[in-house]
Here is the input.
Amino acid sequence: MTLIRPEERVHEVMRRTMVNLEFVKERRGHGGPYEVTQLINSFMGAMVHPWEQMDDIAGLDLKSITLREARIRRWPVLRHELPTDKIPKFYGDMLKWTRHSFAHGNIQFLNDGVDIVQVRFWNQDRQDKRTWGTVVSVTMLEEFLWFFQDLAEGRVPRSREERLSESAD
Here is the structure.
């Protein structure tokens, strides 16, 4: 097992998470390994584990970037599912609410009869009343992981198109 130095923990955990996800995706099958399970595990590791250390990573103040600005930057932005769901004011709020959803196990898998195609996650208040939620495709969830990979590496997050064009070079 390779040593992970404390100052590289977030970066290295994210790098290894993405390597593992790609490994599972390449080998997925009906009897396993299961890519959506790995995606969820990876997402939990990305959101829950390093959250406190990612406050102002890459020189970004995620707490002051609006969802509109994030869309302009082509970052993944979640849409609320129900009309009664709160709408986050800032990107950092959306990330925090997403982190809380996963940390508290408020997730549900949605399938098309064969495969898991979407994931629903939500928050609840102390009285178990839903306060916010979303439904995202498996692809969008993976986009978030790549977004966190960029953050963990100290880079300004790139859009999917930028990443794909970079990998083609």
About this structure: The mean pLDDT is 80.
